[in-house]
């Protein structure tokens, strides 16, 4: 099974690219969704998060964690090991089921040991103005909130330097689709 590691900063179009891959038949594992499932369903994780942060509500957690780097690291220390374990289990299940290709979608993929499970790293990059506009439109974030979120992520240039494939998230959807189809075909033909 071929595994694509899909990353890029918030608002650059990772979810759009993941949807395009899904349409091509790729099994996509969205690590934000995995983290939400764990936060909502794992009693021990819920207990630890609530004990530390006073809430498990997503909006409130985001407000607290993205305002304080130490708090964000604490939240990640609780969730990330569980997310990694669940992701590895899902990859094993997909491979055992004969799935041809999978994608791990994660903002912090390059900082994670899950990066080693990927055959290729794809980075979606975009102009900061595009990311800011998308965050305002799709998540109703203020410019300050968007900047705070972006500042807690590694610079795009670092991600691009580690990429096997770079998708231009500032391009038109048609052009992004062309880039995704070409990169996917090349991966599957390799």
Structural write-up:
The protein is an alpha/beta fold. It has one domain (2-189): Rossmann fold. It is 59% helix and 13% strand. It has a 5-stranded parallel β-sheet, with helices on both faces. The radius of gyration is 17 Å and the shape is globular. The model has no long low-confidence stretch (mean pLDDT 93).
Which terms summarize this structure?
single chain, 190 residues, alpha/beta, Rossmann fold, 59% helix
How is this structure best summarized?
The protein is of the alpha/beta class and 190 residues long. 59% of the residues lie in helices and 13% in strands.
Mean pLDDT: 93
Oligomer: single chain
The total count of strands amounts to 5
Going by CATH, the architecture would be: 3-Layer(aba) Sandwich
Q: Write down the overall geometry.
A: globular
The main β sheet shows up as: 5 strands, parallel
Proportion of strand residues: 5-15%
């Amino acid at each position: 099974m071929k595994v694509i590691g899909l990353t890029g900063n918030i608002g650059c179009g990772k979810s759009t690219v993941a949807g395009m891959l899904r349409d091509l038949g790729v099994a996509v594992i969205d690590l934000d969704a995995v983290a939400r499932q764990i936060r909502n369903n794992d009693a021990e994780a819920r207990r630890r998060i609530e004990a530390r942060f006073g809430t498990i509500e997503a909006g409130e957690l985001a407000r607290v964690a993205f305002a304080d780097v130490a708090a964000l690291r604490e939240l990640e220390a609780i969730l990330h090991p569980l997310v990694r374990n669940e992701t590895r289990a899902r990859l094993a299940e997909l491979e055992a089921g004969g799935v041809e290709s999978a994608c791990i979608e994660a903002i912090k993929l390059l900082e994670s040991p899950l990066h080693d499970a990927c055959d290729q790293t794809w980075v979606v990059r975009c102009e900061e103005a595009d990311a800011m506009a998308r965050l305002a439109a799709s998540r109703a974030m203020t410019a300050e909130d968007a900047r705070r979120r972006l500042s807690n992520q590694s610079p795009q240039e670092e991600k691009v330097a580690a990429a096997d494939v770079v998708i231009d998230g500032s391009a038109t959807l048609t052009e992004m689709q062309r880039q995704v189809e070409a990169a996917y075909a090349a991966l599957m033909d390799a």
